[in-house]
Write a structure and sequence with these properties.
The structure is a homodimer of 229-residue chains. Chain A is built from six helices and nine strands. Chain A is α+β, with helices and mostly antiparallel strands and 229 residues long. Chain A binds a DNA duplex (30 and 30 nucleotides) through residues 161-163, 178-181, 183-185, 188, 200, 202-208, 228.
DNA sequence: CTGCTTTAGTGTCTATAATACACTATTTAG
DNA sequence: CTAAATAGTGTATTATAGACACTAAAGCAG
């Protein structure tokens, strides 16, 4: 049944650009390589697609192995297949990107022992393979998606303040946004609802906490559409 | 050097969704399969990625083999890798889409003997493999791209009338557009220039022919950006 | 308890872009 | 010269984006 072709059979991997926000800045998850090639260099988490395994399944499996996180916003990015991109031979990689909210990123800290670390996007070390190119592509896509989808919302805990939401947008876009215009557009989307709670933190007026309107949000999550800025 | 991994090595193919406009309607190029599986069914043109061959190079090569056309707008679409998508074994396919202008689509007629035919998108036969899914994805992307890029312009000969350009948009979007609004937006883009020529054809007022402003267009082609509708 | 600091929260005006909508102009065929 | 067919043109309305500044509420210091 399997493999009856007389054509080259490259290895196929998945690589993940996993983003989060820490301390107001966009970070990406990197792993320090333990073996050759590129030993000691940082790389995107990823690995080989297994026998009979779907590509997205492989990406989710790798994600869980590396970070312990399930059930994520995960999107196929691009497939990189230059013949020389891996010095060991022909390896084609399907890149995905994912977002982890600030309250779930703690889980991944458990695996930190294995050389897994969050790196600020504005202070990246040199990366293995063509992972710099992949990351550049991923950041492009992320910023783009931000403009017409709700991706940014993936990066927040269940309840959040509007300032926190704006902070996410500013961190990804790399520029400041006007508070009033931002709030007006969010309100227009009609996907948030107030809670009675307030975030009491620090020496200043407490901010109201919001959450998504569950029904609306679930529908939109599938379509991916919405959220212009 | 090559293939030192102990991991599954699927075959990797490229498949192409090649669109054109014929008689005012969106068409896609299909090939009738000569062998098993899906013998006699229609399929997207495509084929295996060769040893040491870049993915896009493979797509361009297949395109040329099937249609004789070079130098096309070609864009990676998505990679499909469900384990069971090919009954012969694990085959991962990287899908591309391309657009051929009405004056170049004639070239491809030369290979028609081999069961290569244009099919109207609104009257497709059943397709082999998961090619219906791939096509659906491609059409989605094409319509989307139309709204914020200049892709539509790829489907026209060097000189064309504004009505022809509008026809392209209507064929892809599947709905009519207002003539005055369409022309205003085109003018705003500032990427067309008038020629002195007119298209004398039929029993009616002749239309002025336009062409792209070469410099502007070359810049935009790379970026891919521009052209909201 | 007063006031200083810090972040939350709110509304208007202007500019730009999108849409709806109808008539005149030019050509050929008969 | 008239009929048929497509080319070509402008205005008014509505929706969206961006610029912009002050008041509100909490904690802490004195």
């Amino acid at each position: 049944m399997a493999y009856t072709y007389e054509y080259p059979r490259p290895s196929v991997t998945v690589d993940l650009a996993i983003f989060t926000i820490r301390e107001g800045k966009l970070h990406v998850l990197l792993i320090r390589r333990g073996g050759q090639p590129f030993k000691g260099k940082w790389a995107l988490p990823g690995g080989f697609v297994l026998e009979g395994e779907d590509l997205e399944t492989a990406a989710l499996r790798e994600l869980q192995e590396e970070t312990g996180v399930r059930d994520l916003y995960l999107e196929q990015l691009y497939t990189f297949g230059e013949p020389q991109r891996d010095p060991r031979g022909r390896v084609i990689t399907v890149a995905y990107f994912a977002l982890i909210s600030s309250d779930r990123q703690e889980l991944s800290a458990q695996t930190d022992a294995a050389g897994v670390e969050w790196h600020a996007m504005d202070a990246l070390p040199p990366l293995a393979f063509d992972h710099e190119k992949i990351l550049e592509y991923a950041l492009d896509r992320l910023r783009n998606k931000l403009e017409y989808t709700t991706v940014g919302f993936q990066l927040l805990p269940k309840k959040f303040t509007l300032s926190e939401l704006q902070g996410i947008y500013e961190a990804i876009l790399g520029r400041g946004l006007d508070k009033r215009n931002f709030r007006r557009k969010i309100a227009l989307l009609d996907i948030l609802e107030e809670t009675d709670e307030k975030k009491m933190e620090g020496v200043h007026r407490p901010a109201r906490l919001y959450r998504f309107k569950a029904r609306k949000f679930e529908k939109l999550k599938d379509k991916g559409i919405l959220f212009p800025f």
